[in-house]
Write a structure and sequence with these properties.
With 165 residues, the protein is an alpha+beta fold. It has helices at residues 5-17, 123-134, 139-150, 152-163, and strands at residues 22-25, 41-45, 56-62, 69-80, 83-87, 95-98, 102-110, 117-119.
């Protein structure tokens, strides 16, 4: 049974604020190609040090000011005072939040069904995220190539739908 993020994430935030570490099954496609929907898990903890560019955070994103919000696990790409700009690795547009909207920080990920933690402090991970952020202007094309390689039928169908409109 999948719980709604409206139920699950506030509970995760409560546990993290109490100092507990939470392993959260990841949902969504915004952190592709590194993290995959339904396959990977994030190890989340309380923010105890100043946030920095490259950190992956769980944050509350206010909707249109109507009281509705959503949640995202995305990478910080800019910090200016209390303002944080973050992107999902698989997204093209940024999200802007306040530091007070940060619920947790990722300390690592369990990927591809492994029980071994890929720490965010490791050299390979650091090289990955720095390169991926640097490649942001080309991200749209790189992700298209990645999707065509991993999901050729679905990608071809989407391309045909866009061309035939």
């Amino acid at each position: 049974m999948l719980l709604s993020n409206d139920i699950l994430i506030p509970e995760v935030a409560r546990l993290v604020s109490e100092g507990k570490t939470v392993t959260l099954p990841l949902r969504g496609y915004s952190m592709r190609p590194y993290l995959e929907d339904g396959r990977d898990k994030g190890l989340l903890t309380k923010v105890t040090e100043p946030l920095k560019v490259g950190d992956v955070i769980l944050a509350r994103i206010d909707g249109d000011g109507d009281g509705n919000c959503r949640y995202a696990l995305h990478r910080i790409v800019r910090i200016e005072g209390d303002e944080i700009t973050m992107y999902g690795d698989g997204n093209y547009s940024p999200e802007h939040i306040k530091e007070s909207d940060v619920l947790a920080i990722a300390k690592g990920f369990y990927r591809k069904g492994s029980d071994r933690l890929d720490s965010v402090d490791s050299l390979p991970y650091s090289i990955y995220w720095r390169t991926w952020v640097w490649l942001r202007p080309m991200r749209r094309y790189l992700l298209l190539i990645w999707r065509m390689w991993h999901y050729p039928k679905e990608t071809t169908k989407k391309i045909k739908q866009r061309i035939c409109k």
